[in-house]
User: Which sequence fits this backbone?
């Protein structure tokens, strides 16, 4: 039986430098997922991750948009949930990978921790 | 259990398999299930692994590979029936262990063909009509191939498709698993097994294929979430 974690997720936020700068995310540990708007108008998850510093993670994503998956173009959004503990973050990253099957994650995140969290 | 897949492609043929031998509680992932016959013919086996190996050892030296795949299928039928009857003369047909063979190769006119032969059916060859054939645990692979396979497929993509089918089956059926093996040949190119690293790359691509479909069932809910989430 998996241990259950209760996470508070952010709203769906446009992935732009203005939005990132406005958020108090510097030094915040957590998990996140990025989604892209498809033709049906819905956002589908294309990348999941975790970080010790979400602010820095998103800034780097934006800064390197010409070389990472953002270069594919389109309208991207993200949401995040603060979460402490590297092992827990990896476990939730893996859970999101399993559920959302994001196309831009090349490998399944590795974690042996048996925890589950709400993803919304 | 086993999964062996044969595919005809525009520029050759592909034969691929898993490598798991399983009993009720144990499994071994080192079993070879695809064998070269001639330079342009091969066979895949499913069923009792030890029996299949010995059976092949017995009939292989008696086969003439230079007469085309149709004749090879007939030779396997005759030798297979003879050998099985010799092995299991003390058992009724229903009591005998089961063995399936997937034979793939070229006719004398350089046309690729496949045949399925089963001990349950006296090794009467069944000629493939769809361009792909599966033996062992075929259901998931047959579903995928029915959806994905076109006769225009090239050999490298056919190898990738075979790996996808084996990968997907192994994710659902624990009787199929272990390292995947893939071999290709054509009427002009000799039988060649793909390297482990090359197959591993195909498995990574198969994983991407699988996951790229799933995401469509889980769109983000634009109304959920907090303005300032906390731990």
Assistant:
């Amino acid at each position: 039986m998996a241990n259950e974690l209760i996470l508070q997720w952010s709203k769906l936020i446009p992935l732009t430098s203005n939005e990132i700068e406005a958020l108090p995310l510097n030094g915040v540990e957590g998990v996140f997922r990025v989604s892209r708007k498809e033709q049906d108008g819905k956002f589908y998850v294309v990348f999941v991750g975790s970080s010790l510093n979400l602010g820095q993670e998103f800034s780097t994503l934006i800064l390197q948009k010409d070389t990472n998956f953002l270069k594919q173009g389109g309208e991207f959004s993200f949401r995040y949930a603060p979460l402490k503990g590297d092992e827990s973050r990896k476990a939730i990253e893996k859970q999101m990978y399993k559920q959302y099957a994001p196309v831009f994650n090349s490998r399944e995140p590795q974690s042996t921790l048996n925890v589950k969290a709400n993803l919304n | 259990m086993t999964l062996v897949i044969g595919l005809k492609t525009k520029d050759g043929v592909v034969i691929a398999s898993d490598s798991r031998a399983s009993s009720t509680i144990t499994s071994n992932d080192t079993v070879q299930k695809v064998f070269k016959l001639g330079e342009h013919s091969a066979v895949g086996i499913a069923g009792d692994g030890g029996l299949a190996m010995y059976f092949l050892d017995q009939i292989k030296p008696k086969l003439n590979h230079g007469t085309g795949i149709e004749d090879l299928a007939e030779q396997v039928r005759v030798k297979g029936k003879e050998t099985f009857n010799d092995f299991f003369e003390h058992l009724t047909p229903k009591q005998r262990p089961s063995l399936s063979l997937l034979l793939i190769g070229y006719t004398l006119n350089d046309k690729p063909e496949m045949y399925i032969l089963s001990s349950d059916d006296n090794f009467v060859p069944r000629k493939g009509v769809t361009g792909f054939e599966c033996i062992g645990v075929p259901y998931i692979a047959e579903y995928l191939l029915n959806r994905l396979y076109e006769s225009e497929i090239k050999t490298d993509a056919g190898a990738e498709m075979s790996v996808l089918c084996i990968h997907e089956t192994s994710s659902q059926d624990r009787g199929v698993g272990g390292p995947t093996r893939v071999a290709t040949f054509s009427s002009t190119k000799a039988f060649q097994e793909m390297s482990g690293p090359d197959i591993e790359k195909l498995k990574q691509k198969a994983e991407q294929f699988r996951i790229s479909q799933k995401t469509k069932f889980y769109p983000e809910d634009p109304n959920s979430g907090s303005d300032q989430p906390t731990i």
In short: Strands of chain A lie at 3-5, 13-14, 30-37, 43-51, 76-82, 115-117. The helical segments of chain A are 17-22, 54-63, 86-100. The two ends of chain A are 21 Å apart (CA to CA). Chain A is about 25% helix and 25% strand.
